[in-house]
């Protein structure tokens, strides 16, 4: 009851402020549902409004069934949307955006999923054509964009080659990190190692003479560690294949080493050891989370230059806790992130056999008083084969070494290696944005710009939209603005729907409306901060960065005061959206789904379209800039050199375009000196299918909530045994597994005789803010 009252109070406080302010904004119908809140422009108590926005911050906890996949495989996910400082699993947003990005932040695939009772789950099928390497899965709500890109959660996934189980030996994803950030002569230091592509057991640690000084102990999931007592003047490295060396940080002659024991649930123990740096300046241990300081304590050393400090976790919020060791002048001597997880719910797992002799897994959830809890959890089981590159078994003690490690220990390795993102949690009250640009999304949206079939903008025009969703058909009406733009909001559509556009007219041709779809700009990828011994400034971690494109990008977007939209082509029915396809210097128009001429140029490298979506777009070819104007060639006829893209759009119906070719430099020499600025050659097709295409122009495809298959529906084709190295495959996945009144749930263990270990990950987030998680390994009885 207390939880419900707290949530109700937050809703009343927030929305009373929110709608009062938004009601004063621009009445432009294109901005319906997009609100503009500015503290400096209102008469409301600024502190009350800031507190409301601070309380209503959303955070997404993203869980995936496995971190290693192959092209065309299906990846399963569960997203819990947590709101406010108490992390209630509630959300005013009803739409989750899911994006697959490559390492450069290029969007490969996107989906929208329905949020129900503060959570969402589903699946994403990977594209067929993907290079092996590192990719990112990102999930967020539109409301979260108000609070900065650093708060959009991402999960790193490794994509293997479909034909070859091995990655090529590379050090690109190898992370080697001293625990306290530095190597200090004479001080024993734990060094964490992480790699998803290398067999850590086979990697030695060597000095400058090539002598092996340490071996890496692995703990599963590409995580490992070794102990090293460095000597000043020596250099150290890990040696991978072909005797390639990845160096460790330089050894300091004097300094301090910070070690943290974070295994106890109620406190963390910090041990600081010094080697006698010059000067008598006092040292201070600082602990920060979310921009607030929770620990500021002078360090008192004993005669052996060792200090031991206990820090209670009771007053520290969940998330990443940043520990820093600084002297009186502000110099940093050591840094270490620590994961604070209070886990009010405990998850236990035990293997046993049922009455029929079937091996089962019994999971029990209890509170801190060991009382059973009836709740819902998400559970994944993945099998792991522990073999080395040559096919032989890894050291016999490896399974035991993995099994003995707690969830807290594994999470500690993850945060130190950078596998787990450094999330800053909530913004400070002082960092809450002064202007809210994005509202809570309540359904699927569609933005468009309307033209008639003669490419003339339909300004201030009533448009009727027929929405065909399977066997269901319904009609919506909108009115365009002065720029021919309109929006459909809060659509409840699952799967793919067809939109047919019409307006008033005496003839069929006059009634047809051609629409260019628009969408929200994809936020840039902010790769989670990887801790590599460098001190990450607190102000950087807690910034509320807004994303803006470069000058040319800004000229081709439509800025609507509170949102940024960009033109997009209609999506194909394929695994990869059109805008993720590889471009060539020759682009062909699609007969089934033709797109406007200016959008065709988006798939040609070296060509920039400026002012896309405006009445006066123009082309820019940076490589030929300053050499002369563009020369247009239409079906072999050379056009006047003053011809522009606008002239071409007016002259040639885009449905008549067969292909466009760009010629630069020597390729264009056939057209003489007039071709110095580049040649654009357009070939048209016959008009035999114009009537058919004209009707298709009046349609668009809308992708609604993704309809995800369940794990049971596709699990038979997902599992496969791979030889030669550690292989992961999903044995079981259920995002809504429910315990009974005894806090228990029993599942049969799937056949996994080919695996050495089974990894289990379970997570719980309740609506009243209680959390629990476990990651553990156990063997499968043969």
UniProtKB/TrEMBL annotation:
Residues 1-22 form the signal peptide. It is a multi-pass membrane protein. Its main location: membrane. One of its GO terms (cellular component) is cell outer membrane. The keyword Signal applies. Residues 596-679 form the TonB-dependent receptor plug domain. One of its GO terms (molecular function) is siderophore uptake transmembrane transporter activity. It is found in: Cell outer membrane. Coiled coil: none annotated. GO terms for biological process: siderophore transmembrane transport. It comes from the Bacteria. Keywords: Cell outer membrane, Membrane, Receptor, Signal, Transmembrane, Transmembrane beta strand, Transport. InterPro entries: Plug_dom, Plug_dom_sf, TonB-dep_rcpt-like. The keyword Transport applies. Belongs to the TonB-dependent receptor family. This is TonB-dependent receptor plug domain-containing protein.
């Amino acid at each position: 009851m207390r939880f419900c009252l707290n949530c109700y109070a937050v809703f009343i406080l927030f929305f009373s402020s929110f709608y009062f302010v938004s009601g004063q904004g621009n009445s432009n119908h294109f901005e319906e549902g997009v609100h503009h809140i500015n503290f400096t422009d209102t008469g409301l108590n600024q502190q009350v409004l800031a507190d409301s926005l601070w309380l209503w911050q959303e955070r997404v906890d993203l869980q995936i069934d496995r971190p290693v996949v192959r092209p065309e495989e299906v990846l399963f996910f569960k997203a819990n949307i947590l709101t406010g400082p108490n992390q209630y699993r509630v959300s005013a947003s009803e739409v989750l955006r899911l994006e697959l990005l490559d390492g450069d932040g290029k969007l490969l695939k996107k989906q929208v999923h329905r949020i129900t009772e503060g959570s969402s789950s589903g699946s994403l099928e990977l594209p067929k054509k993907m290079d092996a390497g590192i990719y990112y899965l990102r999930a967020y709500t539109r409301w979260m964009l108000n609070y900065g890109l650093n708060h959009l959660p991402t999960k790193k996934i490794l994509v293997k080659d479909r034909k070859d189980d091995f990655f090529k030996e590379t050090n690109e994803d190898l992370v080697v990190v001293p625990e306290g950030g530095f190597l200090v002569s004479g001080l024993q230091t734990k060094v964490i190692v992480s790699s998803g592509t290398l067999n850590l057991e086979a990697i030695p640690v060597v000095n400058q003479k090539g002598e092996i000084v340490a071996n890496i102990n692995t703990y599963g999931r590409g995580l490992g560690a070794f102990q090293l007592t460095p000597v000043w003047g020596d250099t150290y490295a890990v040696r991978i294949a072909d005797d390639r060396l990845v160096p460790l940080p330089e050894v300091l002659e004097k300094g301090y080493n910070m070690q943290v024991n974070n295994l106890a649930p109620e406190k963390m123990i910090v041990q600081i050891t010094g080697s006698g740096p010059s000067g008598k300046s006092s040292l201070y241990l600082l602990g920060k989370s979310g921009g607030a300081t929770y620990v500021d304590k002078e360090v008192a050393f004993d005669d052996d230059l060792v200090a031991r400090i206990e820090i209670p976790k009771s007053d520290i919020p969940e998330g990443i806790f940043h520990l820093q060791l600084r002297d009186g002048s502000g110099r940093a001597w050591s840094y270490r992130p620590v994961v604070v997880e209070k886990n009010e719910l405990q998850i236990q797992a035990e293997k046993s056999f049922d009455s029929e002799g079937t091996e089962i897994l019994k999971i029990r959830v209890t509170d801190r008083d060991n009382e059973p809890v009836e709740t819902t959890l998400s559970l994944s089981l993945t099998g792991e084969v522990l073999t080395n590159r040559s096919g032989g078994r890894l050291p016999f003690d490896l399974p035991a070494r993995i099994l003995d490690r707690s969830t807290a220990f594994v999470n500690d390795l993850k945060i130190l290696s950078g596998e787990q993102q450094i999330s800053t949690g909530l913004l400070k009250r002082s960092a809450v944005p002064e202007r809210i640009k994005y509202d809570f999304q309540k359904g699927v949206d569609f933005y468009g710009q309307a033209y008639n079939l003669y490419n003339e903008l339909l300004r201030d025009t009533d448009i009727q939209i027929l929405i065909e969703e399977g066997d269901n058909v319904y009609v919506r009406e909108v009115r365009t603005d002065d720029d021919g733009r309109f929006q459909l909001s809060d659509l409840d559509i699952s799967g793919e729907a067809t939109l047919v556009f019409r307006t008033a007219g005496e003839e069929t041709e006059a009634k047809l409306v051609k629409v260019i779809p628009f969408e929200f700009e994809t936020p840039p990828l902010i790769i989670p901060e990887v801790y590599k011994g460098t001190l990450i400034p607190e102000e950087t971690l807690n910034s509320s960065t807004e994303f803006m494109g470069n000058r040319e990008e800004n000229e081709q977007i439509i800025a609507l005061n509170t949102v940024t939209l960009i033109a997009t082509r209609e999506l194909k029915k394929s695994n990869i959206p059109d805008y993720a396809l590889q471009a060539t210097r020759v682009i062909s128009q699609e007969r089934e789904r033709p797109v406007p001429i200016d959008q065709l140029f988006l798939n040609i490298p070296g060509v920039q379209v400026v002012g896309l979506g405006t009445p006066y777009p123009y082309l820019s070819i940076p490589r030929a800039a300053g050499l002369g104007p563009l020369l247009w060639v239409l079906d072999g006829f050379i056009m006047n050199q003053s011809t522009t893209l606008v002239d071409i759009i007016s002259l040639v119906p885009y449905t008549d375009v067969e292909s466009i070719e760009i010629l630069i430099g020597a390729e264009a020499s056939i057209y003489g000196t007039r071709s110095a600025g580049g040649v654009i050659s357009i070939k048209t097709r016959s008009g035999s299918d114009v009537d058919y295409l004209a009707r298709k122009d009046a349609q668009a495809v809308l992708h609604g909530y993704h309809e995800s298959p369940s794990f049971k529906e596709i699990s038979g084709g997902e599992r496969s045994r791979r030889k030669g190295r550690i292989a992961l495959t999903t044995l079981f996945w259920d995002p809504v597994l429910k315990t009974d009144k005894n806090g228990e749930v029993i599942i049969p263990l799937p056949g996994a005789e080919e695996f050495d270990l089974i990894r289990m990950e379970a997570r719980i987030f309740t609506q009243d803010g209680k959390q629990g998680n476990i990651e553990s390994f156990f063997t499968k009885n043969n």
